[in-house]
Structures are given as C-alpha cells and as structure tokens.
Amino acid sequence: MSSRKKTLLKVIILGDSGVGKTSLMQQFVNNKFSHQYKATIGADFLTKEMLIEDKNVTIQLWDTAGQERFQSLGVAFYRGADCCVLVYDVTNSKSFENLSSWKDEFLIQANVKNPDNFPFVILGNKIDLEENKRAITTKKALSLCESLGNIPYFETSAKENVNIEVAFDIVARNALQQELENDAEFNEDYSDAINIHINGEQSGCAC
Amino acid sequence: MAFKATWNSSSSLFNKLAGHARTEKRDDGAAGASAKETAKETVSVQHHSVEVDGSCNTGDGGHTETKTKDVCKHLGKSEDGNKNNNGNDNGNSDVLNQKDNGSKDDSINDSIIDNEIDPHKTRLNSNLNSNLSNSFLLAPKQNQRSFSNPTTHTTGTSSTTLRLNSNSKRLSITRIGSVSPKSPSTFDINNLLLASKPIATVNFETVNYNNSNNNSSNLISDVRESLTNSITDLRSINNNDNSSLISVETSSTTFNLNSNGNSTATRYNDSPILSDLIPTITLYSENESLENMLNELISDSQSQLNSNLISAQTGVIIDNLLINFELSDDSHDLNQFHKMKKHFFILSSAGKPIYSMHGSDDIITGYMGLIQTIASYFENFNLDSNFYTNNTNFSFFITDPNNDSVKSFQTSDTIFVFLNKSPIILVAISSIYPKESENTLTYQLNFLYEFLISSLSKPYLIRSFKNRDNYDLRKHLGRGDLSRLDSLCNEFSMNYYLNPSFLIGGLEGIYLRKKIRDKINKIFLEYSNKNKKQKNNNSINSDNINNNTNPSKSLLYGLLVAPKEKLISVIRPRRHTLHTSDLQLLFNVVFNSNSFKNNNANEDYYDYYNSNSSRYQSEVGSIRSNITNRTTASNIFSNINNNNNINNMSSSNSNINSNINNINNINNINNQNNLSMLSKSEEEFWIPICLPKFNPNGFLYAFINYIDLNKLEYEVEVKSQELYNKLYNKNDNTGGNNGDNNDLRNILNNFSFNINSNSNSNSNENNNDNEIRNEIRNDMGNDMGNDIGNVNFDFNSNLNSSGFFEENNNKIAMVLISANKNAFYDLRKISNNIINSLISNSVSANNINNKNDQNYNNKINDSNNNGIGENFVMNVNGSNKTTNRKKTENSNNIIKMLNDSLTRNRVSVLDIPAPLIYHFIFKSKKNLQYVFASFKPNFPTKESQLKLMILYSELFSKISDKKLNKNDFINLSLNNFNGDISANTNNVNHLSNTNNKNNKNGQRYEAYETKWKGNSKNNDLIGFSLISDTYEIYLISGGLVNNEYLIKSAKKIVQWCKKNEERLFICGGAVY
Questions:
Q1: What Gene Ontology molecular-function terms does this entry list (chain A) (predicted)?
Q2: Predicted TM-score (pTM) of this structure
Q3: How far is B351 from chain A (nearest CA, A)?
C-alpha cells in the first residue's frame, strides 16, 4: 500500500438485466467481449487505472446485478459512490424506461448529500445491433437525459468497443470534480486538544 | 423468500471471497462455481493445505493447481472456463451454468456413491494395493531431503481410491511417504476402528510394515504404537450434498479421497523419520452409507480400543508446527497474494481501500468492494445470534450477540472476521495453523482500529466521512502510519507472538528490587509533582523557555520503559490509570516505529525467512546498516567500559591518575544541575497521540527521550571517580577543579541529602523485614549464578524487529505525556532533571559503597580531609550499619541496577523452582502485568522458542474461543487450593457443568488443559492454565506430567510470583 497518490473513485454501474453492464466493464477493463450471457450475482468488482489531466486515477468499478433476485445486497452497497453510470439497451425500451427509477433508487440508497449535483452518466448500449432493432432513438435518449438533469449521454457498443473510453473519461472527470468540491468544503480547521481535568471524573479511564 | 434469494447470492459472494483468500487457490474457478461446489472444493482442498503450504514454502503450487483442475474437471466444468477466469479479479459468475452444474453434479455424486462406496459392491481384493498405488503412489525421489515440488498422482474420475469392506473390516491404504527414500514401502492398516462421532480414534491393529531396510520387530512395534496412539480427528460435517471426503495425513504426506472419485495426494517432506508414519484420518461425509459402514467397523471392535483412546483435548502435533512468517507487501503478484495465510484489510464503509497488509492497489481494490458488499449484507440483515448454518461447510455466526459490529464466518481452515467500526470496516482473514479464534482476530482488529484512532483521533475520523461517504482516508495516513500498521500486521500475522503482550493482554514489568523502584518513583515524583518543592532548582536551564509556567503542571503521565516494552516505572494522576491497550499503542510508537528506534535484528532471522517480500528485503537493508552503526558505537563503548573497569579495580594512584586525564577530557562536574554531556540525548521526540481508551476525542502529546543506560552508567562511574578524587586525592591534577571548596560543599550537601533519604528507606526496610532482605540477597546470588554465561543467550537470538528476541539494548525510553500542545520544553526539563537526579543518586550510592572497599577506606582515613569530608563520611557511616554491604555492592546505584536488570535473564523456572515445568506465564490481573519465564533452559533454540509461542497461541486461542467444547475444561474443585493440594487431586474432573466452576470459597478457578503430540511420548507437551479472579497462569510441561503435579507447580509459581510481586510488577507506580 505505498502508492497513495492516486485518487480512487468508486463508480457504480446500474441498469436492467441484460443491458450489457458486465460486457461494458469487461470491454473497458480487459478489452474482451463474450457473446455468452452470464448473469451477475450480487456484484463484481473491477479496477481500471486512468490518467486524467496528469492525475492518476483508479476507477473502482462496481458492476451490479441487474436481475432483481440478485440485487438484495443492501443499502450500504451504494454508499460512498463517486459517480453512477446508468446503462440501458437501445433495443429494449423497457430498460430505457427504467432509467429514472434506477437513478431514484440510487439516490435514495446511496444517501447522497447533494442529489442535484451528483454525477451520473447514461449509456445506451448495443448500438452495434441492426438499426431496425433499435427501440430508442438518440433524440429520445437525449431528451430524457436533459430532463433528468443534464446527464451526459453516450451511445456505446461493448461488442465493438465504441465510445466506452470516452464515456468513462467523462465519468472520471465528473467524479473528480465532485470530489474536489467536497474537499473544498472540508478545509476548515479542526481543533483537537483535549481538556484534561486531572481531578475530574469524566474524562479518561478510571479502571 | 427475499431472504433466501439474498442468502444464495451472498453465500456465493462469501465463497468468492473464500476462494480469493484461500491460500493455495490460484484461479478464481471457485467464483465461477456455485456455492455448493465452491464449498466442496474448499473442503477438499483446504484440509491439507494448511500443512502443505506451511511446511513447504516452495513448490506447493504444482500440486494445488493439479488438484484444483482435477476437482474442477470432475465438477463438469471445462478447464477452459476455469482458465478464462484465471487472473481475473472477479469470477464472473453465471448462475445458469451453476444450476446446470449443480444438478449434474448431484447425480454424479449419487452414482459414484452407489457404485463405488456401497459396501456390498466393493470388495477388498488383491488388486487393491496396486490399484491404490497407481492412484496415489508418490514416486519417491532419490536422496531428496529438501522440500521439493510434490509429486502428485491423481486418479481419473471413475476410480474410487478408498475402499472399505465391511466383511473383512479392513481399510487398506497405500503408504505414500516412504520410510526409506529408496524403496516405497507399503503397509496395510487393518481394522479401522472408530470410537464415536464426531471425534474418534483410529486404531490400526495390525501393521504390516514392509521395509527391506528396517525390519526389526522393535521398529514395527514402535510404528504400531505410534499408529495406535495417533490422534485421529474424524469429523462428520453435515453436507447437504452427498459429497464425502476422507483425508489421510501423515506428517509428511497428505492425501484426500472423496467419494466423487477425486483423490489427491501431496507429499511435502521426505524425511524418513518414524513420526512420518503417524497418519491422521479426517472424514468429511454426509454420505450415510459410508458412515454406516464406518460405524459397523467401529462397533465390531469397540472393545479393543478403549485403552488407547486419546482425549479430545489434543492439539496440534508438535512436529507439524510450522512457523508461519509473512510480512506485509505491496506485491503485484496475485498468486502470492492468494497464498498468504493472513490478511488484514481496512476500508471505508463505501468500500474504498484504506490499508491492506498484502497486495498492490490494483489487486486489492476489487476485494475491498467485495468485502464492503459482504459487510453491507451483514448490515442489511441483522441476523439474530441463533442464526447458524453449517450447511455449506462454513459456519456463520455472530461472535457476540450484544455487539453486532463483529461478524465472522469460517470454512474448515479459514476464518473471516469483520469488524464494522463505521465509517470504517476492518477485516481479518486467517488460515493460519493452528487455527486462530475469532476472539483473537477481533482483538487484533480492534487494536488496528485503535491504532488508527491513535493516529487520527475519533472525531477526525468521523468528521472526515461525515456527509462524504466517498472520502478517501488514505490521504491522511502518512508513511509512518502505514509502516506502523505494517509492523502491527506482521506481528499479528505470525502464528506465534513475538510480543507476548498481545497474547496475554498485559504488560511486562522489569524485574527490579522494590527499593530501586521506590527510588525511581521518588525521583519521578520529586521532579514532576507540583506539590513538592523541587530541590536544587537554582540554575535556570537555558532550554526552559516557558519559564512562566510550572513545568510539572504540564505532566500528565510519565513512563520509564525498557526495551521489549517492559515497564520500569509509571507516574500517574491518582484518578487515572492508563489502559493496557493504550500503553501498547504508545509502546508501538516508542519502540516499533522505524524512524525512532535504533533497530537491531539478527541476520539469522533473514536467512531463516529469506524468501519473503521485497519490501522486507529493503527493510533488512536499512536494519543492517543500523547494525553496523551500532557495532561501531558499541566498540567505542567497550573501550569506555574497559576504562571503567580499570577505574573500579584500581586503587593505585597511578591508575587513577591516568584515568583522570580521560575523565577530564570528557566531563566536569562543576555544576550538578548542568545537563551532563553524556546523558544529553540527541533522541528527543514530540509526538501527538490519541489514546483511545483514555480519551478517543483528542490528542495527548508525548515527549519521548531515549536514554542509553550504558552511557549513564559510565557517567556515573566517571562522576563517582571524580568525586572520589576530589575528596581524597586533592593533589591530583584534576584540571582546574582541585580543591574548590564551595563546589565541593555544594556537591556534598546534595549527596548528604540523598544519602539521608536513602538511609531512611533503608532503615524502614530493615525494620520491616530483615528476613526478606536476606532472602533477596540469596535470590540475587542465585540469579546471578544462573545468569552467568546465560546473559545474552535468551536474546541473542534476536529474531525480530519488535523487540522480543532483540539483542540486549540498554536504551530505555522516558515517555512524558502532556495534554498541552506546547509543553515540549517543560517536559524536556522534567526529563533532564529526572535523568540528572538518577545520575546523582547513583553517584552517591556508588560512593557509599566504595567506602567498603578497604583501600578506599584507608584512603579516606589517610587523607585526613577537612570537615566537609568528615561530615560526609560520618553520614555514610551512620546510614549503613548492615553487614554484607560488599555483597550487594552498588545495590543502591539505580542506574547500575537498572542496567543489570535489562541484561539479566527473565525469571527461570529454576528460580521457583518448578523443574518439570518447561515454561510459564503468570499474569497478575490486578496489575495487568505478566511474568514471562525465561526460555532457558528448556527452549534454547530459536525454533523451539517460536514453537513454544505457537503452543501458547493455541492454548490462549482455545481458551478464548467461546465455542470451546465443554469437555476441554477441567473442573477443579479446589476448595483448599491454597492449602493442601494433594488432598484434592482426585477432584480433577472433566467439567460437565459450568456451574461447577464456583467452589466453596467463592474463589473461581477455571482450568484448561491441552495436549500436544510430539514425535514420541517423551516429547509430548501439555499446556495447562489456571485462571482465577486475581491471576492467570499458563504452563507448558512435558506430556507425562500428571495433573497433580501441574497444579502443585502452578501453585508454587503463583506463590513465588505473589511473594515477589513488588519486584516483578509495577504496583501502582508513582501516584500524585
């Protein structure tokens, strides 16, 4: 544990089952893609190093289970996230419609201090599939993103590695920005002196 | 319903973690498998892994991989799938596949069991041996002595490797380890006899021991005896699947069989010693047919084994004890990470890493998420304490129902403990053997937590995370913090304790005579207590900048600590004592931080454990350079000491004169209140520290000053000599000091004061107990006798950097604690005053003693000094009428006595005497201090010392384990424990009811005993502990010693320790 200069960002990936969360992660971290579908149980964890403006950033990716039956991991699971990535499948309108409920659930469970400013990113995955299968147009997606609070939007393909790097670059930048703002608020001085009353009875251990 | 789903998913998470943490597992195949399968693998792989891994640091990789593959192959997983997951932090689990696999597997299990294990279908035949040989036989390697890559032969999936035949009642096992490296030997073990479930003894009635080289009947009977006596741990674990597994071990070989047809064998030692032949059979089975069959075997021959039943209390086999040694690292090597037997993780509640003992950031970051997920699962489902499952080979329970911040679960050889100290989570994972209890691990985690608090303070920690769950605490941990965390974790990750304090939960005091301790306390008080007038505070110390405040107001606590964290003296406010763990934290700072201490370590240590991490190697480098520095320093001092010797011995003028020149070059004693040059330390530190038990909400400030007693002692000698010269050799050329009457008057005034105070305490003591004094003297004489030649023996084997085995280091630390941030100069002044007072006190003591020297006396008489001198002498004479003055020469010299105490051995069992006791620890509950017996004479080697500590660890952890089998307790109805012991020895019984713990007197005793097998009966060891309301005593003795003797010895030791309480312990210290 020596390399402490790096900033660590906790990024949570949410979205309906089968939209390609795990595939996105795998492509992003390992540059691999598998056609097989394997449901994620609970959560998987990946890390990826990024260089953002000369700053080493470690992204701690929390790839969550989309399937409801594997979701009950608890409130604390979302706690302390620096950014949340919402994923839907551009060929699956249900997954698109669920985006805002995913967002709401995250905000509730993560106990975010400042929900309006919390960094989200929305990804429309599977754009490699034929155009006629597509259920959600870019325009529709953009308008939703705007209504949810100007959330950055990317259309990605985990299979063909389209737009993933770009999207996560924004994820990292937004998370960093958020963290800087948090740090700024914390810079008050802190007094740590103990007031010892030698003959007092309150402080200390009298065992 | 929801709960069930969650449980399923989470249990697979546990298994993922189990898979990751398991030392020998290379890939994450486990993560891909279903919970059941993982658990199964866990068992099959784990049981022997402890021994294999530990004993053979190199080359265990090969077999494990084979085994894992084998298991996976059987489970119907393609190896490809397995490989895909290799090197990937997360097993990307596929629930659908799992389900398929799971069901397929069950059917496979069933079929195998039906076909292979069914007693009626299985017959023992002549092919069996060869069959087994093919399956298991490890090709013996010629002349292979050292550890090597184990050769592993495994069967295919179809053949069952262990066959039991109920008709012939034979269990035939091919011997795997060869007695002679040249010929693979085979013996049949007939009549597997099992006493009862779940723990049973195996009796191998007939042993056909075929060995062309060694065929004497003697050996065979030896083998039979050892086989018969071998403890067998037969466990049935309720698997709800049908897998069963039998693992057979000898100390050199382990092989596992399970009914699925998988078998693995591992050999890790070629040493052809008899103890190799002791097999241990472990059965994990829910397979009823197999179990019934075994029971059949048992019931048939039950009558034959009664005499050889070995009690359930048996612990590890001593020869199998492996010294676990892992050091923290930040290696990028995932394999190495997984191999580690002990892990500590500290993370934020959000899952962000704060500290990990092993592994680089890129390795651990993922695991932190995993851990956080499990912790959040705990949080979400507040399981009641009754929740306990044994379904999947790990039990899961809440350690303390009243404290739900601790959660733990365990597999057959790995225990996971989670300590949730929101906003941070601490996790310990241990597969150390002998197994650590969750209490032990919880204690360690708490200590790590307190360490963080001591560095950051609680409010800071809380505030950091307030409204910012995503806070990254690493920003606020400095290098020093991390290296101290490392050193703590290193300490905790061995299966022995270098520092017994952590094991015992107390501190060790230095052995000092009460008089000396009182003197030190008095000096402490004199210079720190505001109610008392300070004497001779004439000169204003230039260091004292804060002159407007009384320095003593600043002082809260004062400690004088010897190396190895032994307490010398304490000054404390009347209402406050310091908690042991606070002191341990403080000592960790004082002695364990690399920046402060002058670290010594023995090079052997590194040879011993050379194969460890790179970080360690670099540490070695720095320590080595320290050693060289020290060597030169000690060379200088040995010169000085030579001079001293001359000083002491010489009575002739010429010698003295020659020395005077030396002395004058070094020092003058014109003004006593000047800080002497030699004692002036360059090593002063001022550090903020939060003592969590004292007050977790803020910092105290510690002034730390390291004092080299060798230097001080030398200085005392020099000053004594000068004083002597001034008094009696006024004509000598003393460099401008000659005959300054005013100076002399000052000096002597001071000295007479000191002498008077000494004589007071002397006479008190005389009046009180002259007998005891004589005894003391005798003790001292004895002790000295013991010590001759032994000095340095105990600690020459300075195995570590934390001080336990450290070579004699005469540097003590003065720690003065203040609540005032700006009190540095105040405390430094107090410290200097105390040091000076120690010196002057010792100087005067020296001179008192010197008068007993005939030559000295003559000189005094001859010199016909002026009035000052006569006064002095009269004073001296008036205060010392006791005889035997010579014998206790310098016994009033605090510094010399202290120094002697540092170099002397710990109390030996021979001092008590309790000759059959090999070693003991006595803890006084009142003083929260312990006596740790000297390793000599029974544990002369480093290795034996470490093994002793392992045994203690096991003893302690068994005692602290709440789930301890009640049978392991011995009930002592010690009605008259302090009286006639022999009358009560018959009352040593197994405890059937906890209520029996109370005896008539209301004094509660708890006794515990555990036995360890040696390679022969004579080498068995027994661990015994007796815990009363006021003390705890732990003994290690030979296995042949009976309970009566143990209790007698315990009593002797207790009495001895109580008698010497004031020397062994700091009783209260200086209180103001």
A1: GTP binding; GTPase activity; protein-containing complex binding
A2: 0.60
A3: 8
